[in-house]
């Protein structure tokens, strides 16, 4: 059954290319073929096509295409959101009438949730304010996070919004506004993912992952049951003991879905796209675990590149450092403060104090990201708290808690050292 194999291959190829196109620039893929493919898609291919177009139509096609492309990618409009919504509706329309009668009561209850929840979280992700920063809420936005003197420095103004950039914020060129704790702009929800809606976005990924997996597995079960009426002992898993040759395996699939082609196609689409959704969810879970964002992980990766070049230096920031209230919040809800500053130099020598930089003591070279602290990582549970209850004040219980946290971090280190001594 060549056609089944071809559909499966096409869906896999499209999923893979979508993944590379949108996620190939992530730091994890640096120096891998995925990053190269991403560059090929975004730089080499457009450049080649535009060179050909220059010769043939003196660039008319390019200018039209790039206008359309810029509109698609960098203007705020719900095209992809509508596509995503229609994909969900269309798939369910093709899948449910054939599959529903085969469901047990339990699957009907769980299945209903799996159908409804992605719509709910899609709506909430798309229409919840991701954390727009404007003059009226600027002071509050500034009090969310302290500057870490690594990725975010006080005193930087957004050229467009003309407001001081709070720590962890970023200006979104699509939404044309600064967003608190900006992660990235997502065209599937036609909105930024930021402090205000990151939790809805994570739940959207989780429920979409569950829907594709659950629907895919149930669909495959129904098809397998049908196949077994003709080929007893046939299994969905093609690599078991006594499994038929692969060609025969695909033939059986083809026979199984022939009277329910719509449901079969959606089942395959669900099973093949599910890993993509779970991969994205795992990536966001990893970011939360590390206490960082997509935006910040890229900045960290730039720092790593400079550290490899040996041009990064760090030194201590005193705890009783005087803050300039014109550019830096005097109080934040965050329980810890920056204890270090890191800087890049052009010549690989420690910074010369032409412009006095904050901090005390000697500059030491920083070689590895492990040598510098991520101020925004409080540990998994507090990081989750920060994502799911944006604006939660880690200092509501007054300063002693903050002190304890600070002390806990320091004690942990001392304890390890003491343990080492005892063992040594
Ligand atoms: Zn801005
Ligand atoms: Zn945006």
From TrEMBL:
PROSITE patterns per UniProt: DHHC
GO terms under biological process: protein targeting to membrane
Name of a matching Pfam family: DHHC
Domain of life: Eukaryota
Domain Palmitoyltransferase DHHC: 157-300
Record-linked InterPro entries: Palmitoyltrfase_DHHC, PFA4/ZDH16/20/ERF2-like
Record key words, sorted: Acyltransferase, Lipoprotein, Membrane, Palmitate, Transferase, Transmembrane, Transmembrane helix
Molecular function terms, GO-annotated: protein-cysteine S-palmitoyltransferase activity
Transmembrane segment boundaries: 7-28, 79-97, 109-127, 200-225, 265-289
Location relative to the cell: Membrane
Region Disordered: start-end pairs: 403-424
A Gene Ontology cellular-component term: Golgi apparatus
Enzyme Commission number(s): 2.3.1.225
The keyword Transferase appears for this protein: yes
Enzyme class: transferase
Recorded catalytic activity of this chain's protein: L-cysteinyl-[protein] + hexadecanoyl-CoA = S-hexadecanoyl-L-cysteinyl-[protein] + CoA
Membrane topology: Multi-pass membrane protein
This protein's domain notes: The DHHC domain is required for palmitoyltransferase activity.
Family: Belongs to the DHHC palmitoyltransferase family.
This protein's name: Palmitoyltransferase
